[in-house]
Amino acid sequence: MSGGSSRTPSVFSIQEAEDSYPHGVRAGTGDTLALAVMGVVVLVWGLGPPITKLVTAPPLIGTFVRFGISSPFLLLVLAARRRMLSRRVLVATALPGLSFGVNLIFVFATLQEATVSVLSTVVAMQPALLLVLAGPLFREYPTQRQIVFTLLGVVGATGVILGAGSELRSSWVGIGLAVLSLLTFSVYFVLTRLARFDNYVDPIEWMAGINVWAFVSTVPPVLLIADRSDWAQFGGIDWLWISIVAFVTGVFGHVLMTWLHGHLQAARSSLYILMMHLVAVGLAWLIHDEAMTWLQGAAGGVVLLCVALVINVPDRREVR
Questions:
Q1: 146 alpha carbon, distance to own chain's centre
Q2: pLDDT per position as a tens digit, 270-294
Q3: Cα–Cα dist 154/32, whole Å
Q4: By C-alpha distance, which of 29, 173, 187 is closest to 99?
Q5: Which of 53, 59, 129, 135 sits CB 3.0–4.6 Å from 108 for a disulfide?
Q6: Interior angle at CA 244, CA 242 and CA 245, nearest 5
Q7: Please, is 37 exposed, middle or buried when counting C-beta atoms within 10 Å of its C-beta (0-12, 13-18, 19+)?
Q8: Rounded CA gap, 259 and 315, in Å?
Q9: Span 11-22, average pLDDT
Q10: 47 CB-near residues (< 8 Å, 6+ apart)
Q11: Distance between CA 313 and CA 208 in Å, rounded?
């Protein structure tokens, strides 16, 4: 994870080490490319929860298969680029990768106990959590304007989700699993951001390591808990849904997000990700017939307004 020669950045291979930006976030934080990539991430991540809910197999089986097909794919992509998963990256991705794997188990489990809206409500709290962590972890101190509009954005995202009213269904188990989903994803998100904070990390190599460890995290519980009846529930159309989650939301979306960690503040990118909940709730309405109301529409407008008002706010970092 060391810098290479300076050159024009590519979405899939950033190899410049810019000494003038030692804390990881490079010049042009709000540039057109970064915002365009963020828009793609919002769309493909918003696709994840509604598609995941279509999988009928038990959570462990779904997660095992998801990483079982994405891990070798990413290793093959690396090989096609004449690269290998280095020992250093493999070690560095252990904790975030295990967190990511456990997170997906919790996500699958949550969606079998609750509606997409419940999961989205809890996960929408992440930007507020990142505001607290960004300073001490990344020395990225948000401006007052960022803080205000991030908190308003969280309120707006919550309104989008809670506006479903009676369609917001969950057991207490589902709520607990949703909280665990938030915590484990936050660990993965923060550790990946830290990896991009001071070092060059190839996004595809990083995600290959993440997926290998995420797959490893599913093996013990599958061996200890799953039985033949669980495996019998997976098949047919489940392959299509798992493939979309693995390659579109997973490989494509997370490789792009890993790249973005080197170009956007953590708190800023987390605010932008709030827009994925608009996509998720909209698709849940289309796919699962989960109701949409005027309150959700108004709250969605608040989210978009807050994001728009923060896009051009200059970053404020600790200066040394």
A1: 21
A2: 777 777 777 877 777 777 776 666 6
A3: 24
A4: 187
A5: 59
A6: 65
A7: middle
A8: 18
A9: 36
A10: 244, 248, 249, 279, 280, 283
A11: 34
Residue corresponding to tokens 């989700």: 161
DSSP 8-state class, residue 207: H
Do residues 293 and 147 lie in contact, with contact meaning Cβ atoms separated by under 8 Å?
A: no
Residue 84 makes CB contacts below 8 A (sequence gap 6+) with 78
Helix (H) or strand (E) holding 100: helix 94-113
| 115 Cβ neighbours under 8 A, 6+ residues apart | 164, 167, 168, 169, 170, 284, 288, 290
Amino acid identity of 15? Q
Q: How far apart are CA 317 and CA 85, in angstroms?
A: 32
Going by pLDDT thresholds of 50, 70 and 90, the confidence category of residue 320 is very low
Q: Running DSSP on this structure, what letter comes out for residue 245?
A: I
For the record, the structure tokens of 142 come out as 């948000």
pTM value is 0.70
Q: Of 155, 162, 101, nearest to 127 (Cα)?
A: 155
Task: Supply 192's token pair.
Answer: 């990946």
- Looking at residue 124, the DSSP 8-state letter turns out to be T
| Mean pLDDT, residues 113-118 taken together | 69
CA distances from 130 to 56, 85, 94, 136, 263 (A): 33, 29, 22, 10, 16
Q: Which of 263, 291, 260, 314 is nearest to 40 (CA)?
A: 260
What size, in residues, is the chain?
A: 320
Q: What is the pLDDT of residue 161?
A: 60
- In the numeric block, which tokens belong to residue 161? 């989700």
> With contact defined as beta carbons under 8 Å apart, do 205 and 86 qualify?
yes
